[in-house]
## 1
Amino acid sequence: MHKKHYEQLQESIYAETLPNGLKVFLQPKSEMAKTYAIFSTNYGSVDQTFVPLDGEEKITVPEGIAHFLEHKLFEKEDRDVFQDFTKQGASANAFTSFTQTAYLFSATSHIEENVTTLLDFVQDPYFSDKSVEKEKGIIAQEIRMYDDQPDWRSFFGTIQSLFQSHPVRIDIAGTVESIQEITKEDLYTCYNTFYHPSNMTLFVTGNIDEEKMIELIRANQDSKKFAPPAKIERFFPEEPETVAEKKKQVRMPVSVAKCMVGIKENTDYASPEAYLKQELLTDMVLDYYFSKSGVYYEELYKNDLIDDSFGFETSLEKNFGFSIIGGNTKEPDRFADTVKGMLQRMKDHTVTEAEMERMKKKTIGQMLRAMNSLEFVSNRFIQYHLAGVDLFDIVPAIEKLTAADANDFLKEWFNEDRLAVCQILPQEA
Amino acid sequence: MKIAGEKIITGKGATLHLIPTKKYKTISIAVKLQAPLERETITARALLPYVLQQGTASLSDARALRLKLDDLYGAILSISGTKKGEKHIITLRLDVANENYLSDRTPLFERAVNLLREILFEPKVENGAFTESIVSRETQTLKQKMVALKDDKMSYANMRLIDEMCKDESYSLHVHGYEEELKDMDGSKLYGFYEKMLKQDKMDIYILGDVDSELAEKAVQPFLERDVSPIEERAASVHSTSADVQEVIETQDVQQAKLHLGYRTNIRYDDSDYAALQVFNGLFGGFPSSKLFRNVREKHSLAYYAASRFESHKGLLFVFSGIDPKDYQKAKEIIDAQLASMQAGEFEGSEVEEVKDLIVSQILETIDNPAGHIETLYQQVMGNKNITIEQMLDTIQQVTTEDVLQVAKKVQLDTVYLLTNKEAEKNA
């Protein structure tokens, strides 16, 4: 087990890759009551086309299958794993994102039993025709719930207007129709391909003793047999430079319209360092202009184009990336034109050293605040790790940034062809 | 792991609660202002949190204030209003980095407290009134908030359930206020409400983090010395119980129906059976192992979520579920059957023990988060109770199966609210 200590943040991380390929990270925090563990596979909704383990030909699986699989892993032949965690005082959960499926629990007692349960249930699938059929009703209601949420519809609508062929444009849960096609055989195919320990990461943080914990994990993994690690071949269609739809409008029964401006981000990072730099700079410049201290926020607010639902976010992954700016607005067209104009103007602005210092201070302070949360640290650590970046090196990376970096970034950021607009509009009478 | 103790210092104008802990890389400051929930003041109190963020005596506008926060290493300010039972609480929160984790060690805490003091006591004022242009712009924001609430179907259904269930009780007042009251709101009127708040509200200040007690006490002196004339406590609204259950069905163009049920428990935070109510809720609908989730979701595949939650200061309990519109009757029957089963004592001693452990764990996890810790302690101020967190956990552990059964028998269905679509109604 390898220890890395981060002096300024007063944190230590213990890391080990087991013989079966599983990557384990432990972060003891004895002042916390709780322990949080997350067991994550590098497999999400975008991994739709791949060569199955022991297969030769690539296949494409039904939309929403990674999320369906996440639901079904909790059910075993004789019981529901939620109840196992409950008996051990833990609360368990799981989530599926574009690129990740993760299983997790938090607890303040029975930590060793709960870690064992977490490893064992994820590594022991049981799918039957009957239980697959039963789940379709539950997931259909989950999809319907999201269908009624204007925030979700505007987020996804923006992604669909940005991407022409990349599977990020497919809803993570699939559709009520697409999930009907899913069979138990499909689930086993995806499971066997993507849930090999060498494609997975375990992060445990909180009130733990790192030596005892790694012993337990090693013994648990040594007792199980796995196929030798194999490289997973995944396929992604060529995504054109330009957006799918410059302007998309969705009608639904809302009282207030919404408008989002999306940017299809460049993803040709030269190195993990370049990736991190691009991510930090994108966040920082969006924050600089569009957070409540930003000049553009002020302008939008004074012109009655936004309310307090306004926000922005960036997501950069290996082969897709986007930023989204928007919220409720009374004038969706004027909002879209104004924000697009602002984005163009940003490219001509020169950030001064003093402005850069303020941006850096803010980003560092907010990173410290986020680190209060065990969930944030574990989830982000894994995400960054897959991109080759160490979460705890972020503060020094921010400290190194200069105004020149921001200015270079702004010049090259995007062009008009990579912008799209998505509006949620009330239904016509 | 040791639970951080709370040190309480009572001043004439406010009560200071110090919670020293090294758990976090930030220091959290929260100021709570408590007043009765009233139709006459609710709209102004909903508007004040917006107006107070638009500048101070020395920071001319909202952006100047935000830049000041950025300079304090991205300190996070939030001001919001909530209702708890029949009280309204305005909370000002400021979270600031602990400079021990920064390469620049210039102290931030005192500057943060001073900024919060300025925001609360020295807002931007012209001739004894808030600036008209600010009040009218923030009125717009608040109005849009009231309207947008309708687009979040879960919140909307909650609000409508309480509207119908608590018609004659102040608890049904809308936390965002009322549009008609905004019509003749102006800078001087709102300033009058602000002065009343400063003069009459009960104020509690929380400081949580790795900060020296003496330093903290000194920093908040202006709050502790506030000139105050509190008003008398009002009696809670009386609700006359009727055996009839009312059913309210509304239609909108929705994909999923929201079935929300309201119950009376008449058990409040300072009641001796409050801990048993927590355990009851855990067995009934508080966790994935509860009866509601196991039956409505896992057994009958009717919903993605089906859960219950209780209101601590008013004695209410709510059940929520999102279902296919055609399944209304079936879902309602299954939910009713779960309560009947609780009332018939159909739960094992071992399940009670499991739920007790889950609740203890939930409380411990809540206090692993700065805001969660502060809210847990503030519950006590609200409920006029003063016990340590250890004692709180103890009372949970002492709950017996019989205690839970007695609570179950007190739970009475009052109102069933369904938000569904037109097709379902036609077929019903």
## 2
Amino acid sequence: MTSPNASPNPHVLGQSSIFNPQVINDIHTKAELGRYRMRGFSMFKPIPHWDQLMFMPGTLTRFVIEGYREKCDTKTVLGARFAQKPLELDIPVYITGMSFGALSLEAKMALAKGASMAGTATCSGEGGMIPPERDLSTKWYYQVIQSRYGFNPHHLMLADAIEFFIGQGCKVGLGGHLMGQKVTEQVAEMRSLPAGIDQRSPARHPDWLGPDDLSLKIQEVREATDYQVPIQLKLGAARVYDDVRMAAKCGPDIIYLDGAEGGTGAGPHLATEETGIPLMAAIPEARRALEDVGLADEIDLVVAGGIRNGGDIAKCIALGAKAVAIGHSSLMALNCNKELPGITDYEGTLGVKAGSCYHCHTGRCPVGITTQDPELRKRLDVEQGAERVYNFLHTLTLEVQMLARACGKTDVHSLEPEDLCALTTEAAAMARVPLAGTNYVPGVTEERTLHEIKTLLEKHVANDGGGSRDV
Amino acid sequence: MVAMSTRRSRNDIRGLAEPDVEAPKTARIEGDTAVFDAADLSPRQINLELRRLVYGEQIPEVTIENPGAKHSVAVGILTRCRITIDGSVGYFGATLGDGPEIHITGRVGWSVAENMMSGVTVIDKNAGSLTGAAMRGGDLVIRGHVGARTGIDQKGGTIIVGGNAGALTGFMMQRGRQIICGDAGPGMGDSMYDGAIYVGGAVASLGVDCVEAEMTPEDDELIDRKFRIYGMDRPASFRKFVCGKKLWNYDNLEPSERKLVL
Amino acid sequence: MCGIAGIIHTDGPGDVGAEMTRMLQSMKHRGPDSAGYALYGEPSELLVMRFKLADPNETSDFDFSERLERSRREVESRLSKVGATVDRVQGESAYAYRASFRYEGELKPLADYIENIPGCEVLSLGHSLEIVKDLGDARTVSDSYRLGEFRGTHAIGHVRMATESDVDIAGAHPYWAYPFSDVAVVHNGQLTNYHQWRRRLERHGHRFQSECDSEIIAVYLAERLADGMSLETAMKTSLSDLDGVFTYLVVTEDSLGMAKDEMAAKPLVLHEGDGMVALASEESAIRAVLPQEIDSYDPYESEVLVWSR
């Protein structure tokens, strides 16, 4: 495929920014293909993101905690609402659900081991439980997902927490994908499917169709697991205020919100680009919803989607998350998108440079993470991978602590929205924090002012004995 | 260490969560059998009593009286035993089980025997929708009619329906078989991956990628055997429906999506 | 999120108030925020109007009762002005009232005129329909409105878990098909072309008392009934006109109907017995009035059924 001309020729009038060369190529490809285009990875188009928020640490107004050494707790307890055994994590970060099938056995094992080394949890993901992953996990989420691939009540009993997957940020309202290239005999057998099919998972659960049924489904799983472990509902962030209110009333212990920046192992490019809202906008909406239904102190909020560093995590916690889950960045810790000299050849095999790879869905991952190919899988060493995952999780925690200490906190969970300001009005409006250097919060300030005017006016009218005068 | 006792709220808005309940210990135990009355018990109490009897007292045969169409009754039983529920249960009855033989003499609500791994569940009257959802093994027998989406995402085992079935029977079914004696509603077998649906009556319409197949002597032999086991009258003839396999794969792949090894 | 229930006696009046309370109370987990009833008593020559003059969430400051009394007198005076002969107006709760009167004119101008009084909402208007809805569970509402004494032929009811709108009476079902006499609806599900239909019906001159999609169904059906369509036909057209997933119950002066959309994603259990038909989101509600061994089944997709008293 060739790109249309974009030469510096002085006789060229210009080029459409709407029908740019990429768009034209995309149309050409779709005209050949006859279907939506698939890809892995996170969002391509720019959206308001964490980079537009800044911390306002203590200087003289606040006592700062020694940044690199003094006590700053990171212990994170999730799901103490009804569970006899709430999930206790040493750090406020854990590894989100990614299926065996999307990921290789080695990747699942390395993530599990790395998470355990860091004192935190990992999650089964869609394809069912693989015993080596469970063995290596000290804290393990078991997912109740729409497809119920490989779902087994015996495995349910082994869970430290149960996650109902209802939606994901990168493709809200849609089910998962696994292209036939990755549906090996083993993966297919675990999922009770024919090998080699292009698997499109259902978007709805098979045994409940609405929130009334969901609350009964939660009751069922609590009955089956004897109220031992927390129940978490994972939602893709879209109509967050209403969805979280509804979810909260269904009776979970934890609500997990996945922002639109979230990645995927395979999804329609269009769905990844065009569904959901940024996590930065979702967290304040979720907090408001939990407060409005009176469950802000009972239900814990876990968030995920496009998390890259400890700054992102600290900002999530400040806006009201109890814990943050990471997916794609943990794969990067395993070498995703890294050229390994003498081993990988990104450009030669996938046509893109390392750093620009989004080909998880093809099953041809050059570093052995998102593949089932026995040869490619050899490129990921479980022990070394686990070490890097641990290092990354440990660093994230240090970064969160560093920012928390600078803001004068001896516990990372003491971070609050008031510790933040925004660099753009968009970010200020979405995150509901003031624009840097001002006390202006778009929307909130106006509403507050209107309310003040209304109250003043009412007082004025009342004092006037019914408004004998024009106001 | 976060103090959790201070923030634990003991009631959910709907009143469906009952964390702090103990088994009522009201069953009458006689030798290998036990009976208890569920009229005044909550689902949690019913399940705790049932588990106490099955796991704690090792009683192989338990009867639950007056279940009152309650939800989530007899869920997650992972051992061989025989449970009779004398009456009707609500949603999620006899689900997530592996091994038990459960007999419900009344009707059941939605999602009965959901994700059953093995064992037998027999319902004498009608069932609601989502019957046998994501079921993986064992036999699920409904002597009456069933609602919509019977055997949705079914992954194994056999579902037998004495009466009619609603819309989207066998929706996204993956494995196993369904034997419907009466009529089936519109969209039957929609997007099924595999498995077989046998229908004795009329089929309103087939869903996407569901096609009719030839009945083989093995099919007839299997149906005969199942009907003999459950003492049911067999309709004279069945038609068999399977996956057309047109939806198994995308028609085209991009160059980077082509298979490398495997 | 909600639970719905309906009951109709085909062989003469019964204790529909008490029966509906038992049905709704057994489904409290489906909606503990508010409960609502549409009850049909003996048809009368008089028109019965149920209305409220304030919301339970309003703070009752010192002139609250004074203002309510003023508004109540205003209702009576407006009824007289339009030529109605008032039989009686009685308080049913701190803010809800029941008025019975003789009136031959059109209902729409009457309802509009009454609702023009600040804080006033007409909950129902008809010769036998009476809608009662308030915060709390069915038992609480029944006790405060003395519904245990209500005898009649048919009723529908609703328990609500407030989600998309606030916990208030405006968001509670049943919905009276303003301004059509004696038609009311309860609904479980959601309509995904609600705004299209709302704008269309507003262009036809209808107005809505709430932001709730369920109210569309009531007005949609009543408009077709007023055009001369039978209830059953009107309900059948609704199956293709309304998008989304829904199961609804509708009541008119002499009938009770149910409809389920083609996706069949919202539950309903039905028992048809001698002299009585009972329907509800869950079987437990039917068991609450018929504890003996009965047969019940789930109506199928695209099914429309109507029973008459």
